[in-house]
Amino acid sequence: MSLVATGLSRTFGRHLAVADAGLELRPGRICGLVGPNGAGKTTLLLLLAGLLAPDDGTIVIDGSPASPEDTRRLIGWMPDVFGTWESLTAHEILTTFGRLYGLRTASARQRADELLELVHLSEFAARPAHELSRGQKQRLGFARALVHSPQFLLLDEPASGMDPRSRMDLRSQLRRLADDGCAVLVSSHILSELDEMVDDVVLMTGGRTHRPPPAAGHVWRIRLAGQSMSDAEQRHFDDEPAAAGYLRELIRSGAAVAEFAPTSSGIEDAYLALDPERR
Ligand SMILES: Nc1ncnc2c1ncn2[C@@H]1O[C@H](COP(=O)(O)OP(=O)(O)OP(=O)(O)O)[C@@H](O)[C@H]1O
Fold first, then answer.
1. What pairs with residue 200 in β-bridges?
2. What pLDDT is recorded for position 277?
3. CATH no. of 3-85+138-210
């Protein structure tokens, strides 16, 4: 299933948080949502999840206008902070959400078991949520977003608070979900990590969405064996074939190249090219 949002706008009082924003989510693809603090990312995600009413704009799923009920049924939503019933156990929370999504009690319990295993929280199944660490709560929040096997997954800063192994797990789980046909939208400030994960990028500033401009090349770091990072050469190449040609010549000349890589990711470059709009 694909989702196309166009012209979404939302004000809070006199403040325009999202202005004429649009994006497309397609099955099998992971899209990154990137922008400075206050750009409107969370507000846009809430509009897409059907949890906040837009002042204007449309959300179309597979060619038909989607109601908030449709989107809530089809979309899994992971907020940046896990807010839930703190005194319920991890297992009870997932089972309750399964029931709310219409699963029978036995199926909801089984789904909770599966999801706790997926996010490596089985040993915390009987712990109340308030006893979980921040990273464990994030993982439980990810599991909660998956309870009803959604077609679309919206994640707001999912990796914040997660340890490195959990982040790696999250990346591979998102890829697996996409491979199974899910369309994923993930907002993050960790651009290098996002670069390894996403197929498409949407930039956001001042409530508006933008496509990243075509890359105007990269600066590459060329470090010879035994050289420190600060002594390594930095050289700009317009594209990968130009970089590869230079590397070929270096090797041919006998240089002992230990490292040859772009110093920044494509998303970082696109982000830094935005007008910094901090609020
Ligand atoms: N409930 C609200 N009431 C009033 N203003 C709000 C509300 N929610 C968000 N805003 C404002 O809307 C703008 C966009 O906020 P939003 O949380 O969507 O940004 P964001 O891009 O997710 O930021 P961050 O990267 O810091 O999480 C901000 O200026 C914020 O102050």
1. 31
2. 47
3. 3.40.50.300
